[in-house]
Amino acid sequence: MYKVLYLIALYSGIIPICLYLLRKGTKLNLGKEIVFPFITLTFIATIYEQIGVIYSIIGSSYWFQIYAVLEFTALFYYYRELNFIKKKQEFEIFFAVFFVFFYLISWMFFRTENIFLSLFISQIPIVLLVIVSSFSWFKKLFLNKEIKDLWKNADFYFVSGYLIYCASTFFLFSLSGFLVETSLYFYDYWLVNVLATLFLRIMLSIGVWRMKMT
Amino acid sequence: MENENDLKWVFWLGTLFMAFMALSIVLLAVFYQRRFYIVKQHEAEVGLKATLEAEKTERNRVAADLHDGISGDISAILNLVGVLELKNRQIENVQLLCEIKTALGITIDEVQRVSYNLMPPLLETEDLQAVLKDFFNRVEKTYKVRVEARYFSEGLLLTTSESYELYRCIQELTENVLKHGKASSIKFSVDCIEGEYVFRFLDDGCSYDFFKASKTAKGMGIRNIKARLSNLKAILVQLPSDSGNCIFIRKKIKG
């Protein structure tokens, strides 16, 4: 059952980019939509986890560290371009410095045999970015009252999908380092990440489907 | 073992709590956002109604001032010039006085035309169709354009306010195609189809996209039409046309 869910969650990473290309059709200027870097990264992650792990192109420990940078960059770009932040420059500087600081610290705790502590440290700025940005976006939503139907708005799916993903997996990433060193069956807990990832990718897919293409 | 139990509890409670909080925020946002949006829309509608009503009142006042005030004064001047003409028989003066009379006559016509365009007096006493007939007659004479108009056999069940807004929309559409579209013929008709009044407006001028034009800086007149139709709860539909423009305005009949 775990394996089935894992495979579904893994291959669902291909759906958002396929939907994007399908909806884009023959229109030029591919990648103009601000969520494009993130759905491309999701696709690359799926390909890596299927091929890269088998052929050990990059060790999975190193891949998680690289992925943290890519994930932060894609999310940072998305929230920045969503254009709801009042003090844009302060926002950019703060989160860029915050991420670099924690990322460097994560390398200090990096161990190939147990990457979870370094993974959690590198996730801290990402989780903070998602929570702050999501709250700001919802606040702007209420202040401006411009969107008629949230269910038809693509950004709603992207923002809320990532918020729920980060919230659901926060305790998993923070406690994984300890869980893995106990006698507890780790995959029972890692299942939370599998389900959260599946949920996120479904939300991404719906969001891409709802997106207005330029 | 005890530590492992504690770890398990912390993990599951923490995860469920965080997931529940995030989900609650999202669901609250969905539930309340729609309410706020409806309130904002209602406020905008009320504001729009008030603006259009104020505009109508102001137009009424200016039209009345022009017709009663300025037009009357010019007519008085015309009479005085007529008296002067009778008393002064020198040829050069007679010619000059004749020119003054002609200019004053043209000015009176112009003032009356502006006054009528601001607020047609017929709107207060007659059906919208009677006003439109009069309007298109004047358009034919002023712009030397051919107008084929067909009207609904019965009177239109519209309030004075609704008639005024529809008149303004049709007036704006006409002025657009005459000034910008350089149309030489207009076809206009009013029908009653399946509980709706349908105003059909066709012209042979330059084609334009109504909805695209309303988003440009120069589309002020078209945005006014949209605002009026929104206030009336009427719909404008533009059909593709090989030449010129084909626009329908549909208004549901009340009661």
TrEMBL record, chain A:
The entry's keywords: Membrane, Transmembrane, Transmembrane helix
Residue ranges crossing the lipid bilayer per the database entry: 6-22, 34-56, 62-79, 91-109, 115-135, 156-178, 190-209
Keyword Kinase: no
The name this protein goes by in its record: YhhN-like protein
Provenance organism: Myroides guanonis
Taxonomic path: Bacteria, Pseudomonadati, Bacteroidota, Flavobacteriia, Flavobacteriales
TrEMBL record, chain B:
Enzyme class, broadest EC rank: transferase
Residue ranges of the TM segments: 12-32
Cellular component, GO annotation: membrane
EC code: 2.7.13.3
Ranges for domain Signal transduction histidine kinase subgroup 3 dimerisation and phosphoacceptor: 58-121
InterPro entries referenced in this protein's UniProt entry, alphabetically: HATPase_C_sf, Sensor_HK_TwoCompSys, Sig_transdc_His_kin_sub3_dim/P
Catalytic activity line of the entry: ATP + protein L-histidine = ADP + protein N-phospho-L-histidine
Keyword entries, A-Z: ATP-binding, Kinase, Membrane, Nucleotide-binding, Phosphoprotein, Transferase, Transmembrane, Transmembrane helix, Two-component regulatory system
Protein name: histidine kinase
Source organism (scientific name): Myroides guanonis
Taxonomic classification: Bacteria, Pseudomonadati, Bacteroidota, Flavobacteriia, Flavobacteriales
